[in-house]
Design brief:
Layout: E1 2-8, E2 17-19, E3 21-25, E4 28-29, E5 35-39, E6 44-45, E7 57-61, E8 64-68, E9 77-79, E10 87-92, E11 95-101, H1 104-113, E12 122-127, E13 155-159, H2 160-173, E14 190-193, E15 203-208, E16 211-220, H3 241-247, E17 256-263, E18 267-270, E19 275-280, E20 283-284
Length: 286
């Protein structure tokens, strides 16, 4: 098995950037989910409320960030990220942490892009290196393990055979309206070329290149998986979530696709790197 794709999402819920190689840090790939959009009160905003965020293209060059959207009336914007801005408390799921406001210009850009009324405000924030956002202790491998502005864990891995199985089932259910679901609707960081569907759910630890990862829990999927990650249009039949729910619903865990991981050491991983399974559930591999 090899790595077939690597991806980062510098601004949470906006378009991803595919990479040939990526730097593994303790809280996620370098630059992954470093920025997040929040309400005036600091509550995080995503495609769940604004699916059109999927249309926002993000480019990083020479320590500057550029934002654009092909079909928007809003002109592209390039801004200089800062670590010296105003510190504000933000909320992401059950976590509260301190983040750094990125200023009025980029906040106004998103306000215009999202067509918010004058009573609603939004701010773009950057994760503060001085304030760790720890992983939920129930699913951490040690105390105070950090995570970016990702939903819960530093890395999300998916397998190609699992997507093939899902698309096969969707085709059987929706023969006249079938459109293959691309992997980017699941917004993974690491895609592995697999032969057997959902085999990744059996893995407990793996090695990619020189980096070892612990697989700590499956990913419960939400409505974002039904949103086209280029157009921001949500599937009217709720696919792929509807079909996924017919065979990947696991009680209170939800509808599962993909595996969350925590790195055990740092390094560089590359597309084409071999993926070695070190341990499966209840068994070591020598």
């Amino acid at each position: 098995m090899i790595v077939s794709e690597l991806c980062i999402y510098p601004l949470k819920s906006c378009q991803g950037i595919t990479l040939a190689q990526a730097e593994v840090t303790s809280k996620g790939f370098a630059q992954d989910r470093e920025f997040m959009l929040v309400t005036q009160k600091g509550k995080f905003l995503t495609q769940r409320q604004f699916p059109q965020l999927a249309k926002v293209q993000v480019h990083i060059s020479d320590e500057q960030v550029s934002l654009s959207s092909l079909d928007s009336q809003v002109q592209p914007l390039t801004f200089q990220p800062t670590l010296a801005g105003r510190e504000i408390e933000v909320e992401i799921w059950l976590d509260r942490t301190i983040a750094i406001d990125q200023g009025d210009e980029v906040a106004e850009w998103f306000h215009t892009f999202l067509e918010l009324d004058s009573q609603k405000k939004c701010r773009l924030v950057r994760q503060s290196p001085q304030h760790i956002r720890p992983i939920n202790r129930k699913y951490a491998t040690q105390a105070q393990e950090p995570v970016s502005f990702a939903d819960s864990h530093p890395y999300l891995l998916t397998g190609t055979a699992s997507l093939d199985e899902l698309n096969h089932r969707i085709r059987d259910m929706e023969t006249s309206h079938f459109r293959p679901v691309p992997m980017n609707q699941f917004r993974p960081n690491i895609v592995v070329e697999t032969e057997h569907s959902f085999v990744e759910g059996n893995w407990k630890s793996i090695q990619i290149g020189t980096v070892r990862f612990i697989l700590v829990k499956p990913c419960s999927r939400c409505i974002i998986t039904t949103t086209n990650q280029y157009t921001g249009i949500t599937n009217s039949l709720r696919e792929p979530l509807r079909t996924l729910g017919t065979f990947r619903q696991f009680g209170e865990q939800g509808v599962l696709f993909g595996e969350y991981m925590i790195p055990q050491n740092l390094g560089i991983i590359r597309v084409g790197d071999r993926v070695k399974v070190l341990e499966v559930r209840g068994e070591n591999i020598r």
